[in-house]
Request: fold
Amino acid sequence: MMRAALALARRSLGSTWPNPAVGCVIVRDGRVIARGRTRDGGRPHAEADAIAEAAKAGLSLKGATVYVTLEPCAHHGRTPPCADALVTAGVARVVSALEDPDPRVKGQGHARLKAAGIAVDVGEGADEAAAINAGFLLRVREGRPLFHLKIAGSLDGRIATASGESKWITGEGARRDGHRLRAIHDAILVGAATAAADDPELTCRLPGLAARSPVRIVLDSQARLSPASKLATSANLTPVWLACTRSAPAARRDALARLGVKIVEVDGGDDGRIDVAAAARTLGSRGLTRVLVEGGGQVAASFLKTGLVDGISSYRAGLILGADGRSAVGGLDFARLGSAPRFRLVSARQLQGDTLETWRRED
Reply:
C-alpha cells in the first residue's frame, strides 16, 4: 500500500511547488477505499484529496488505515491541517513514510494523531519518499531547490560541433524523454548564451502534458534576452523568470517586464556573472523545489563548481565529435582528481539507439 502511495506522489512531481508531492492510500477491511495525491499548485493535499474521494463515494473512514508518504500537516494555511481532518474522519491508524522537516509541522502532525488515539507508524518507504521529495527537503533544510543537470551529447561529451550545430545529436526517443524530464521539474534553467544561440521554447511538448510546462528561467546578468525571442514573446502563456544583477540596464529589464517576463534580481560575482549560489537561494525563497539545468556548458560548470548539482541525466548518442566540438561542461579549474565532483550511477537504459544514464551526487 505504501508503494501505491509513493507511485501517486511521483505523479505529482513538478506541479505542486512550493508544497511537496505526496501520495495517500486509505484502506479498510483489506480493501482500498480511497486514493489521493497533492494536486496542482499544492492544493488540496493528498490526505484531503483522498478524504474527498471517499466522501464522494459515500464511504466512511472510521477504523481505516491511512498510508501517506509524508507526515500530515499540523498548521493552518490556505486549508485546515490534514492531521485534524484525519482525526475528524475517525481513522484508526496512519502509516507515514517520513517526518516533515518543515518547522510548522516537524513531528506535530504525528503527535496530534497520537493524542487523538490514532496508531502512528513512521518509516515505511522512507528512502523512496525522501528521494521523491529531495527538492522539497533541500529547500526546507538548506534554502535552495534540487538542481538536476541534463546533458544530451556525443560519446566524447560534446554537445555541438565546432560550428555550433547540435540538432540533432540524440534521436527522437531521447528528445521525448527529455520532455518527460521537464514535466517532473518545477523549472528549467539555461544561461543567456544558450537562450541567444538556440532561441529555445523550453516547454514540455509531449502529447497531453503541455500544461505541465515548468517555469522557464534564464540566467542573464545584463538582461540581454531579446524581446523578440520565443521565451519573451510567450511569457504570458508559460512563466519566464529572468535572473539578472542589479547593474542590468533598466530599459532592458522594463522592456522584458512589459512582455510578462518576471525580473528576479540576484547578486553578481566579482566577474560580473550571476553568483549561482545566490541564485539558488533566491529560487528557493520563491518556492521552487526542483530545477532542471539544461545548459550551456558554462552554466553547467558554474553549478558543478559550486557543488549544486544533485543529479545528472546524460543522454549519449553513438557518435564522436572530437576535441573541436563544444563541450557539455565548461572549465572547472581544478588540477587534481580529488577535486572532481563525483556521482554514482543510479540507472542506465536504451532509448532507440541512444543511452540514458542517471547519476546521483555522492555525499
In short: Residues 172-183 form the longest helix (12 residues). The longest strand covers residues 343-351. The chain has a mean pLDDT of 93.
